[in-house]
Write a structure and sequence with these properties.
heterodimer; A: alpha+beta; seven-stranded mixed sheet; 29 helices; 21 strands; elongated; B: alpha+beta; Arc Repressor Mutant, subunit A; three-stranded antiparallel sheet; 4 helices
Chain lengths: 887, 113
């Protein structure tokens, strides 16, 4: 109620403003009359007396102003007045206003977008109760070679039961299954989750029930399915009767028991699942039973709430005691291990650290953009203040307080800041909601869940206030030092001749731009290189046909038979050059690694391993279809089956690490963790397996007949049209088995996933770099144009007495250009330092690249040329005659 | 006119209250009255008076009404409110204490040893 009363009194004051005004006016008139009466009595004529009284009284307008101010509460009134005045002034110089608002909108927009993403991915906790003390248990520690978020299921059980720091630990893995809800089977993605998953997270079902720890009774004992709200809505039209319905998961009957609440998408931020199933059903879901195998680390995440009184450091040392228990009891499987805690939402430190580093770096760059924009606007405002010095001096002379004038300028700056901020925020919210629905990969339900929340708006508002303050402060000094007498007499401000402060601003701004241009060049160059780097296979002219035989119910010996059948069928298709089967292709989602030992090693504990190579199960012709070149020996054949001696093709790095050289590796033996001796029959080139930024990694290719895989990828090499070929393949496979879910795409398209980070980095840096370049151009342009216009008379005189074009240009533009060179050099050096962060994400992001260096220098030079072109033309066109006539 | 002293900050309000306490006055009258009661020792800028008057009215220490001056001109007359009277007493006491303290401090003689 008090606020209401206040508002009413304010409103009343507004309405009665004119009444108060006229009352003040009347009182002052009466004062002057009374004084004049006295003066008249002392012998002056009435007219002289009144004039004298008025002069004695001084500036009436100023007095009225002070009276108004002393009335208090009319801050609002003055503000309204300032705003009206500001809008009028800004509308008078529309070009300036639009440029300023546009600049700021871009800068604030960029900051809001980057902050929005940072907020969504890093700052905001997972949308579950008590998310602050939710941690992921990581195998190894960040920065060490063996760090991984994967665990084996028996290790998870020990972690769950033996730790004393967590309320409870949950485990989950990500899986793709063939789900048959009555019509045709489709492949869907979801979580295999431990029984305590929902209870530990504190999630309640939207409909039906969840599965619990009490439902777990050994392998395949809990055929229950929980659907996510989105999947239920899209595929069952929110039909409540689905609860209790029996569907087929990889041909096995499962009961839909519940629907998760709409806001719950599991424990990973960027993955949007369709279902949750108990992890004890791994065999039916993944086609393999690893529940009792301690040496296979496949559980993707182990997550839990810390107990209220336990700190992360205490939890880590508690986990270390579990680690030493595991080491003591399972020396062969676990060996010397350690655990560490990590953020749960981005797959531990694996994605979390690079994403955090990248976003922090991006935020820093965006902040630099804003700073550059402020510097730009600051010098624009200063130049304007200098041009308006006559007007300001006049106002000062008429009795306006300096404070009042500063406030007017501040109001103008704030109007621009608010308008720019509003536009920038609007654009960024639009952009963020576009990003929110974006699914970059067709094969995998991955997205970036970004909903701008209050924090984004608050940060944008703060940025508006801070930037408005910064760039309105720049011209303040100038106003404070303005001497009205001098200005009115000389016709132009005496201050503003020395522009050292603005020079410094411009150098800073150019340096910032240099940083951005350098980093975007490094990123672009890195991306180009990663596209042309040697993958160890040839993705062009190859299709990948992906299926999971487990989804269609194939078992044991049926699997290799079907695979061989598929290879033969596809190889017979028109235009197909070669077909190879494999359990997985390099640079696809995840790569399995396993320990191998030198043949002489008897004690197969992890510490004695000779290497930890990536493992692929491939069929004959795979290398030919994939375009991986064989360096020596032979490839695999259909005869390398269960009855033959175990063989492998290894890459060069494997040969170097395990045998010391390629020559020793040929025909040599090594041991797998199971103790099986494997003979190397061929050596192939090195390649990329997990990410484009990795160093050469060892890899071995086992025969798919000796190491079976239900996951079946067929590499089909053909020069034909991929579209036609894909439909031909689809028809052919449907003839073999109509129930087999297929995913077909070009290999190039599959590489979108590994290339995604560097693409995002390049686009983001490119946008920021372009913005930085634009800001620099306008900054240098403003400076140069101003310098030329200030000195146009001098230039005219120079031309009149016969100066050459070169000399004129040097006089006019020497200073801005020197600043440009200085700023670019500083920016280049800083930019090269900044690219260290980039090395996380972008392949070969090295600053020591002559092409990058020359590129940056040329870009900055071009930038200077563009920015000073028009001022230079103006300087050269200075016509002494016209100028002198004007004088 | 003798030597004129600069007004100390904050003393204008006190002088106005004192001047008005002797009877309702208009703005010009207050200026004259202050000159008269201070023996023309204090100079008040005409411009400084009105903001102070408006402020005192707003604080509820003075009330104002329109009336006729001695020579029949329309003028706004100010008089003390109860709060104004109280404030005058307090301020005057404070001022007197301060003045006495300063006077005695300035009157101190160096001690002869």
């Amino acid at each position: 109620m008090r606020i209401l009363a206040h508002v009413r009194s304010l409103a009343a004051r507004f309405l009665h403003r004119s009444a108060i005004e006229s009352e003040i006016e009347e009182e002052l008139r009466s004062h002057i009359q009374l004084r004049a009466d006295d003066l008249e009595r002392s012998g002056l004529t009435r007219a002289t007396a009144e004039r004298r009284a008025r002069i004695e009284f001084g500036a009436r307008e100023r007095l009225k102003e002070e009276v108004r101010e002393s009335l208090g509460g009319n801050f609002v009134e003055t503000l309204a007045q300032d705003i009206r005045y500001g809008v009028r002034v800004l509308r008078k110089s529309l070009g300036f206003t639009i440029a300023a608002i546009g600049t700021l909108a871009l800068a604030i927009g960029a900051n809001s977008v980057v902050f929005g993403v940072l907020n969504a991915l890093i700052l905001r906790p997972l949308d579950v109760p008590r998310a602050q003390n939710l941690y992921e248990v990581q195998y190894g520690a960040y920065g060490k070679a063996d760090v991984s978020m994967y665990h084996s299921y028996p290790d998870y059980l020990d972690l769950r039961d033996r730790n004393r720091s967590f309320e409870s630990l949950i485990a989950y893995s990500i899986s793709e299954v063939g789900l048959d809800t009555g019509d045709s089977p489709s492949s869907v993605w979801g979580y295999e989750a431990s029984g305590n998953y929902f209870d530990a997270l504190g999630i309640q079902p939207y409909l039906g029930r969840f599965f619990h720890a009490s439902d777990e009774h050994g392998p395949n004992s809990a055929p229950y399915l929980v659907l996510t709200y989105a999947y239920w809505q899209n595929h069952f039209g929110s039909d409540r009767s689905v609860i209790g319905r029996i569907v087929r998961v990889n041909k096995h009957p499962y009961t839909i028991i519940g629907i998760a609440p709409p806001a719950f998408h599991g424990t990973l931020l960027m993955f949007t699942p369709d279902f949750f199933a108990p992890i004890v059903d791994e065999e039916q879901i993944d086609g393999e039973n690893d529940l009792n195998i301690r040496s296979t680390r496949w559980v993707f995440g182990v997550v839990g709430h810390l107990k209220p009184s336990v700190t992360p450091a205490q939890a880590t040392s508690d986990l270390d005691s579990v680690a030493s228990y595991l080491e003591k009891n399972y020396p062969k499987e676990d060996g010397r291990i350690s655990f560490s805690l990590a953020r749960p939402t981005l797959a531990g430190d694996f994605l979390g650290r690079p994403i955090q580093a990248f976003l922090t770096g991006l935020m820093l760059l965006a902040a630099l953009i804003l700073l550059a924009a402020c510097a730009n606007l600051g010098s624009l405002f200063a130049a304007r203040a200098a041009d308006r010095s006559r007007e300001l001096a006049l106002r000062l002379a008429l009795g306006a307080g300096r404070g009042r004038i500063l406030r007017t300028l501040f109001t103008e700056a704030m109007l621009i800041a608010i308008a720019g901020g509003a536009i920038g925020l609007w654009v960024s919210v639009e952009l963020l909601s576009q990003l929110n629905g974006w699914q970059p990969f067709s094969r995998f339900p991955m997205g970036v869940p970004i909903m701008p929340d209050a924090k984004v708006y608050i940060v944008a508002l703060l940025l508006v206030l801070v930037s408005g303050t910064i760039f309105s402060l720049v011209p303040m000094r100038q106003v404070l030092r303005t001497d009205p007498y001098q200005v009115v007499k000389a016709g132009r401000s005496v201050v503003g001749q020395r522009t050292t402060f603005r020079d410094a601003l411009l150098v800073v701004q150019i340096a910032i731009c240099g940083v951005l241009v350098t980093s975007s060049f490094v990123a672009v160059r890195g991306l180009v290189r990663s596209l042309h780097s040697n993958f160890g296979f040839e993705p062009i002219h190859a299709l990948i046909v992906s299926t999971d035989l487990n989804m269609a119910g194939y078992k044991d010996a049926q699997v290799p038979a079907m695979q061989k059948h598929m290879v033969e069928t596809l190889a017979a298709l028109h235009g197909v050059d070669s077909v190879g089967v494999t359990g997985g292709v390099p640079l696809d989602m995840g790569a399995t690694s396993t320990r191998v030992y030198s043949d002489r090693t008897a004690d197969l504990r992890p510490a004695n391993a000779a290497a930890n190579p990536y493992m692929y199960q491939v069929g004959p012709e795979y290398f030919r279809a994939a375009g991986t070149s064989l360096l020596s020996g032979r490839t695999l054949s259909w005869h390398d089956d269960q009855n033959a001696r175990p063989v492998a093709v290894v890459n060069r790095e494997f040969a170097r690490q395990v045998f010391g050289s390629e020559a020793k590796a040929a025909g040599g033996f090594f041991k797998r963790a199971s103790g099986v001796r494997v003979q190397v029959v061929g050596i192939v080139e090195d390649g990329k397996f997990l990410s484009l930024t990795e160093n050469p990694k060892p890899a071995m290719f086992l025969s798919i007949l000796q190491a079976p895989s239900v996951k079946t990828l067929l590499v089909v090499r053909s020069n034909g049209d991929p579209q036609q070929l894909a439909s031909a393949i689809r028809r052919a496979v449907r003839d073999l088995d109509p129930g087999l879910p297929l995913y077909i795409d070009t290999w190039i398209k599959l590489l979108d996933t590994p290339l995604f980070p560097s693409r995002v980095a390049t686009v983001a840096l490119g946008i920021l770099g372009t913005m930085g370049a634009m800001l620099s151009i306008t900054g240098i342009f403003g400076m140069a144009a101003y310098a030329v216009s200030k000195r146009i008379r001098e230039l005219g005189i120079r031309i009149a007495i016969g100066a050459q074009a070169r000399q004129v240009l040097q006089a006019a533009l020497g200073r801005p250009l020197r600043l440009l060179v200085f700023g670019s050099a500083a920016g280049l050096v800083l930019g090269l330092l900044a690219t260290r962060v980039l090395a996380y994400i972008v392949y070969h992001a090295t600053p020591r690249d002559p092409l990058v260096l020359t590129g940056v220098v040329i870009a900055m030079a071009l930038l200077g040329l563009v920015a000073t072109w028009i001022p230079a033309q103006r300087a050269l066109a200075a016509d002494p005659l016209t100028l002198l006539r004007e004088e | 006119m003798g030597a004129q002293a600069q007004l100390l900050p904050g003393t204008l309000d006190l002088l106005i209250l004192k001047a008005v306490s002797l009877g309702p006055l208009h703005g010009y009258g207050i200026l004259l009255r202050i000159g008269q009661i201070s023996g023309s020792a204090l100079l008040i800028e005409q411009g400084a008076l009105y903001p102070a008057l408006f402020r005192l009215v707003r604080q509820g220490l003075l009330k104002a009404r329109w009336g006729k001056s001695d020579n029949n001109r329309k003028a706004k007359f100010y008089e003390l409110t109860a709060a104004g009277r109280k404030r005058l007493r307090e301020e005057a006491d404070g001022w007197n204490r301060l003045a006495a303290a300063i006077a005695s401090a300035l009157a101190a003689q160096p001690e002869e040893s």
